[in-house]
Specification:
The protein contains seven helices and no strands. It is mainly α and 156 residues long. It has one domain. The chain starts with 6 loop residues before the first helix and ends in a 5-residue tail after the last helix.
Length: 156
Amino acid sequence: MTISLSFEKQLYDSANAYYQGASLLMLMKPTSPPLENPALLVQPAVTCTALSLKLYLKCLLAIEGKDKEDTIYKIAELYRTLSDDAKKGILQKFDELSNSTLSSNDLLAHLESLDNAFAKWRYIHEEEAKSVNLEDLEEMVLATKAAIDHIKPDWE
């Protein structure tokens, strides 16, 4: 028996896997050498969380029939390309999760601060340490996933 998943569903499942991996990393306690510094687990966790956000946004774009050439890589640009309805759904869920009332421009500023988090944290040893608001990142992931779950409830 062969099961064929749509491209959109494959993106969704990959995003879920990276987010679950990130969640597990944040819960882990480092073992004896070579990983004695617990902060080192944050690096792969942030990388996986940022990648999951990108994949969820790409999934929404794929559902909408956009970015079929896979040419958009920045988180804020992925968001800008979404339909107004999708943006509204993400903003409403983000406000609910973060207990805030952001404008669309405020949310875009949050997303711009997360741009390239995947590359910056993946290669953190190559440049100065970058800061990232982990709570914002997680709330954006959950808000974007919720927008997809609203459109595709059978995927949950």
